[in-house]
Write a structure and sequence with these properties.
The chain is mainly alpha-helical. It has one domain. The protein has three helices and no strands.
Length: 65
């Protein structure tokens, strides 16, 4: 679950980088526009993954030797 959340957060971050730098929304371009149901699903999953990833900040880390 953690890796899936991280993957979705990375996708969202890259998409926001493209929007910020080039005014290009890759998710919308690939899935039929911002209002398409597929785009909305991806945006929702990225948002949920971001909310889930907040828990990473409060977890104990294992020390690697």
């Amino acid at each position: 679950m953690d890796r899936l959340a991280l993957l979705l957060v990375i996708i969202g971050a890259l998409n926001w980088g493209l929007i910020g730098l080039f005014r290009f929304d890759l998710v919308a371009a690939l899935l039929g526009g911002q209002a398409s149901i597929l785009s909305r699903i991806v945006y929702s999953l990225v948002g949920l993954a971001g909310a889930y990833s907040i828990s990473f900040l409060f977890r104990e880390r294992e020390k690697v030797r």
